């Protein structure tokens, strides 16, 4: 919902989810609700790439995207 737009806030939220017992953290770099403003793949990556780099080496993550280039980069 746009609450964790900075890398630091998003990574902190991921860490708190892990501490609360999450088995996996799903990250969605773009809104998918009806009427949400579409963003480019570059914007999605700028929102999520650093967070994935911080969290994924330590914990399973899922990326909520329909853009293949975003999914590929996150892998």
Care to give the gist of this entry?
This protein is mostly helical and 75 residues long.
Keywords:
75 residues, mainly alpha, two-stranded parallel ribbon
* Tally of DSSP helical segments: 3
Q: Radius of gyration, rounded?
A: 12 Å
Uncertain ranges? none
| Nearest-integer average pLDDT | 89
How far apart are the first and last residues' alpha carbons, in Å? 23 Å
Percentage of residues in strands? 5-15%
* Percent in helix: 40-55%
Explain what this protein looks like in three dimensions:
The chain has helices at residues 7-19, 41-55, 68-74, and strands at 25-27, 61-63. The longest helix has 15 residues, at 41-55. The radius of gyration is 12 Å and the shape is globular. Strands 1-2 form a two-stranded parallel ribbon. The chain is mainly α and 75 residues long.
Helix-strand blueprint:
Layout: H1 7-19, E1 25-27, H2 41-55, E2 61-63, H3 68-74
Parallel strand pairs: 1-2
Helix pairs in contact: 1-2, 2-3
């Amino acid at each position: 919902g746009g609450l964790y737009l900075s890398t630091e806030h998003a990574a902190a939220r991921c860490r708190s989810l892990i501490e609360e017992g999450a088995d996996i953290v799903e990250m969605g770099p773009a809104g998918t609700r009806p009427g949400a403003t579409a963003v480019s793949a570059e914007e999605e990556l700028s929102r999520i790439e650093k967070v994935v780099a911080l969290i994924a080496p330590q914990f399973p993550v899922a990326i909520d995207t329909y853009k293949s280039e975003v999914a590929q980069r996150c892998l």
